[in-house]
Amino acid sequence: YCFFGAGGYVGMAKRYRQYAQEKGIFKTLREKEKEVPATARLAGAVNVWNWDTAPSKMAEEMQAAGIEHILWSSGGNAQEIRKINEMGVLSSRYDIYQDIMDPANREYLEGWHPDWIDAAWPNEIILEKDGSWRHGWDVKGKDGQRYDCGMICDRFAPKYAAQKIPAELAVKPYLARFIDTTTASPWQECWNPDHPMTRTDSREWKMKLLDYVSGDMKLVTGCENGHDASVPYLHYFEGMMSLVYYRFQDAGRNQLRVWEEVPENLSKFQVGHNYRLPLWELVFHDCTVSYWFWGDYNNKFPALWDKRDLFNLLYGVPPMFMFTHDQWLANKERFVQSYQNTCPVIREIAYEEMLDHRFLTSDRNVQQTRFANGYTVVVNFGPTSYVYQGQKTKTTIPAMGFHVEK
Question: Fewest CB within a 10 Å sphere: which of 33, 70, 167, 168?
Fold first, then answer.
């Protein structure tokens, strides 16, 4: 146990930072860049998901508009990946080593996920104590019924990654890779007598998978949600900014749809500045980059876009955009504004420890963060302006505005 007489939540976070260092689960982005040079492209890079436009065309349009640093998460063919690499884009693609579908269900489904590993069914899936198989993600079939995936026993994930990734990189020279679910799902138990697995085993095999991708393959590696055990092996998390229990209910499926109406629970807690604390960033800001969840991105709810941008700036982490090309054209100025308001500063503080977070007003509308290289960020979530006494001069910060100083 550790008792605190002072310091509050910041002191607690800093004590946990010390614990992480002592435990060996602390590794900075500067250290990671020495091993994976493409890490430098992650600093201040907006995370972009788009599937209806050639990557090089989309990147060219974005960079011409002023969005320079991009994490392109949507994959592409070999020629396109080479092109965007040359443009300074951090090229990435989605991958998964958990959910797989029974090949017998292929005829009943509208489509077959290219990353489902057919060879793992049925001998390498997780079994429950009663011998039944563990049910994972479900998809809708042609007949309207739901068909459940099984889950690969974690001990086999590194094997399949080793079969898949090097062969693909020989053709498509990706610089990064996003591994879905691995740090979002709990440590698992497997009761299959041929490959039993404890939760401790599960954690170790999950970390071996991530270590293979980032360590052996030298890829900038991201994962879903996040876990401190994975900090030595990962560069970024999708979902760390999005509190799981307060996401939009459809966030994991109908990702592209933009919603005008904001659920009360999401407005109150997900982006509730009265409730949120940057605990992860106070511990690990200089170790990993945090993004919103891919169904909870900056432009998902236009009414919340400004507020999400303020959180990104306050926490020192880049935004995420998901759009069709038509949506990009219709909202180009707003996308550029989001990037320009956040990413240039975030690029400067990407590798820095967050030293402090504090509320400057009793209603918590005005908040401040400080970073190790001298940057201070102040945001005003409130409906009225705020006069901020800076290091040298006073500054009036407008409602839903911000101020950055060094």
Answer: 167
